[in-house]
Amino acid sequence: MNFFDELNPRTKSAFQTQELNFDPYNANQIQEILRGRDDAFRDGVLTDEVIPLVAAFSAQEHGDARKAMRLFRTAGELADREGADMVEEDHVRRAQDALEKDRFRDFLQGTPTQMKAACLSIAAKSLYSRDDYIITGELYDAYQQITNAIDMDTIGIRRFRDILDEMQLSQVIETKEVNMGKGGGRHNSHRLLHNPEAILDIVMEDTRFGDISKSSLKRFA
């Protein structure tokens, strides 16, 4: 017999867990939080653009105050390592790029090579095509060219769609359904949520992709 089953409804209610959802912070709220923590820096070392830019990046990407503080701190550490007198906009932008690479590297760590090839296909298409959203068929064509170039097994379109679903769940891509017009049907279309240059750099750290250069990826797009 389950002990929990013996409890009366009021007691059960007291034991039940409840999920709390918090709305993400907007840019103005993040600015207020950061200004309350700018005493971590010496007076006068932050240029006027630093806090608004950190807040803008953070609000657009996640709305998480802790991650905003990490970006704020990383920009300061970068300026300190370089011996700069001021923390400037460029330090924030480079800190953002570095943190984005770290997050994506964590995502790819231990993932199958097929996932990396799929990431490479959407990064190449995002970098070299004019479309923000790319339909599944076009991504699969690019993926096939990449796997052929490195003599790697090519998975079928169904498994490729599964990988795209995994990428969406991990917030690597955003997916929406689009209507291609009369006779074209409806298709899933995908947009990369990360810097494609950063993704290319990280994926190509894998020696399996050593025979592919950034310039050669343009023909796959």
TrEMBL record:
UniProt GO BP: DNA replication
Protein's organism: Halosimplex rubrum
Family: Belongs to the CDC6/cdc18 family.
InterPro entries found in the cross-reference section: Cdc6_C, Cdc6_lid, ORC1/CDC6, Orc1/Cdc6_arc, P-loop_NTPase, WH-like_DNA-bd_sf, WH_DNA-bd_sf
Residue span(s) of domain Cdc6 C-terminal: 119-203
UniProt GO MF annotations: ATP binding
Lineage: Archaea, Methanobacteriati, Methanobacteriota, Stenosarchaea group, Halobacteria
SMART domains: Cdc6_C (SM01074)
Pfam entry (one): Cdc6_lid
Alphabetical keyword list: ATP-binding, DNA replication, Nucleotide-binding
Protein name per UniProt: Cdc6 C-terminal domain-containing protein
